[in-house]
Amino acid sequence: MAKAPAKKKKGLDLKKMKKRLLDERADIEKLEEMTEGDRKPVELDQQTQGRLARMDAMQLHEMALEQERRREVEIQRIDAALKRMEEGEYGYCLSCGDEISPKRLDTDPAAPLCVDCASG
Ligand SMILES: [Zn+2]
C-alpha cells in the first residue's frame, strides 16, 4: 500500500497530465516555427500579383497572425496549468475552488475552471 498525498484525487494521473500538457506545448511551438514565414509582412509586388492575389496574401497573413495569437493564449493556459501542478493546485477550479472533473481535464488538461464556472 503506497501512501497517497492528501490532495490526490481519484482518476487523475498528474504525471500523465503533465506529459500531455508538455507534449501539447511542444506541438504548438513546432507549429509556430513552421508558420513563421506566413507571419512576415506581406510583400506586395505589383508586377507579379493581381489585386485578388494581393488580397489573398493579406488575408492569409491576417489568419496567420490570428492563429499566432491563439497559440500564445494556449501556451499561457498550459503554462498556468503546469504552475498550478507545481503548487499542488492543479485540478481545482480557479473561480470556486471545487474539483474539476477528471473527465473535463481529460478533454482539456489546461482547463482552469470547473464546468459550472466555465459555462456560467
Ligand atoms: Zn468552479
Layout of SSEs?
Layout: H1 14-34, H2 51-86, H3 102-107, H4 115-119
Helix pairs in contact: 1-2
Zinc ion binds at residues 93, 95-96, 98, 113-114, 116-117.
Characterize the structure shown:
Helix 1 (14-34) runs antiparallel to helix 2 (51-86). It is built from four helices and no strands. The chain is elongated and about 55 Å long. It is mostly helical and 120 residues long. It has one domain (14-34, 48-119): Four Helix Bundle (Hemerythrin (Met), subunit A). Bound molecules: zinc ion (ZN). Zinc ion is lined by residues 93, 95-96, 98, 113-114, 116-117. The site of zinc ion has 8 residues, from helix 4.
Descriptive tags:
binds zinc ion, 120 residues, 4 helices, mainly alpha
